[in-house]
Design brief:
204 residues, alpha/beta, two-stranded antiparallel sheet
Length: 204
C-alpha cells in the first residue's frame, strides 16, 4: 500500500515520535511524507527532513488578510490565530500533495492527515477505505469533531483539508471554533464519518 502522509503544524518532538508514526501507518507500507509548518526552527526542520525525507515541504509563515473577530459567534475557548494557522497548514500541505501527484502521476491508496506532536500507540485501519468516507479517531470532539487526525481516499481528503472558513461562517454553518468548523466542513461536503479506535495522545 502506498500512503500519502500530510503532516501539518508543530514539529515538536518529531524525532521522538518518528517510530510511532511509522509503526501506526504500517511498517511495510510505502509512505511519502509532506509537510506544512509555519516558522518551525531550523534545527527542528532539519531533523524532520533528515528523518522523514519529505517529498515536498513548506515552512513559511502563515498569512491571512481576513478578520474572524467580526463574527458574533466566537467560542470563548478559540485561539483565532492558532486555529487559522491550523487550517492554512492543512490546506498548504494538501496543495503540496496535489502538486506531487500531478507532476509524477502518483496514485495513493490512502492519504493521512496528522500531527507530528502526537504519540501514536495503535495501528491505523487503512486496508479497506469506503468512497465518500472520512475516518476520524473517536474522542477529542469538543462540541464538534476531532480535528487532529483523519484519513481516507484522496478525493475525500481534498475536501477535508481544503476547508473554507469564511464560506462556512458566512453561511452560518458553524461558530468560530476549530472542531465545529471541521464538523461543518465535513457535513457541507456530504461525507460519511467512521470513527476508528486509535490510541494516541498529544505530546508537546
Amino acid at each position: 500500500m502506498r500512503i500519502g502522509v500530510m503532516i501539518y503544524g508543530r514539529l515538536n518532538k518529531c524525532i521522538e515520535h518518528y517510530e510511532s508514526i511509522i509503526n501506526c501507518l504500517g511498517k511495510n507500507n510505502e509512505k511519502d511524507f509532506f509537510l506544512s509548518s509555519d516558522n518551525s526552527s531550523e534545527s527542528l526542520l532539519n531533523d524532520f527532513i533528515r528523518l522523514y525525507n519529505p517529498k515536498l515541504y513548506n515552512n513559511s509563515p502563515t498569512y491571512y488578510d481576513y478578520d474572524l473577530n467580526k463574527y458574533p459567534n466566537i467560542d470563548p475557548t478559540t485561539n483565532i490565530h492558532n486555529m487559522t494557522s491550523h487550517f492554512i497548514n492543512k490546506n498548504r500541505v494538501l496543495i503540496l500533495v496535489e502538486e506531487y501527484i500531478n507532476k509524477y502521476k502518483i496514485q495513493y491508496d490512502c492519504v493521512v492527515s496528522l500531527r507530528a506532536d502526537c504519540m501514536y500507540k495503535s495501528n491505523f485501519e487503512l486496508d479497506i477505505l469506503e468512497d465518500k468516507t472520512i475516518y476520524i479517531p473517536s474522542g477529542n470532539d469538543y462540541e464538534g469533531i476531532n480535528d487532529q487526525v483523519a484519513y481516507g481516499k484522496i478525493d475525500v481528503m481534498k475536501k477535508y483539508n481544503s476547508i473554507n472558513v469564511i464560506d462556512l461562517l458566512d453561511k452560518k454553518l458553524s461558530k468560530v471554533h476549530p472542531e465545529s468548523l471541521t464538523c461543518a466542513n465535513i457535513r457541507y461536503h456530504n461525507l460519511h464519518i467512521k470513527r476508528p479506535k486509535i490510541d494516541y495522545y498529544i505530546d508537546k
